[in-house]
Specification:
- The structure is a single chain.
- This protein has helices at about 15-25, 40-50, 65-70; strands at about 5-10, 30-35, 50-55, 80-85.
- With about 90 residues, the chain is of the alpha/beta class.
- It has a 4-stranded parallel sheet, sandwiched between helices.
- Strand 1, helix 1 and strand 2 (about 30-35) form a beta-alpha-beta unit.
Length: about 90
């Protein structure tokens, strides 16, 4: 019997501890990808097309807000559900 294919979760945050905690919490249910800034997040999104994205607002290089704008402006990535959060 084959294993069911896991859905993909992308976590984008510049806080490595938070990334690791979320990856551990959801790793059993999802294939988890991690990005440390919005630029990495955009690259991984366009390569992996995750099923859901957890996105921090304030990050270096490309902010979460800018990443969201770019994803929403692209017809291929627009349907991906995005949950935005902030530590501040």
């Amino acid at each position: 019997m084959t294993e069911p294919v896991k859905k993909k979760l992308l976590i984008v945050d510049d806080n490595t501890t938070f990334l690791d905690q979320i990856a551990e919490a959801f790793g059993g249910e999802y294939t988890v990808f991690q990005a440390h800034n919005g630029a990495e997040g955009l690259e991984i999104t366009r390569r992996e097309f995750p099923d859901v994205i957890l996105l921090d607002v304030m990050m270096p290089k490309v902010s979460g807000v800018e990443m969201l704008r770019q994803l929403q402006g692209d017809m291929e990535t627009r349907p991906i559900p995005i949950i935005i959060f902030s530590g501040s």
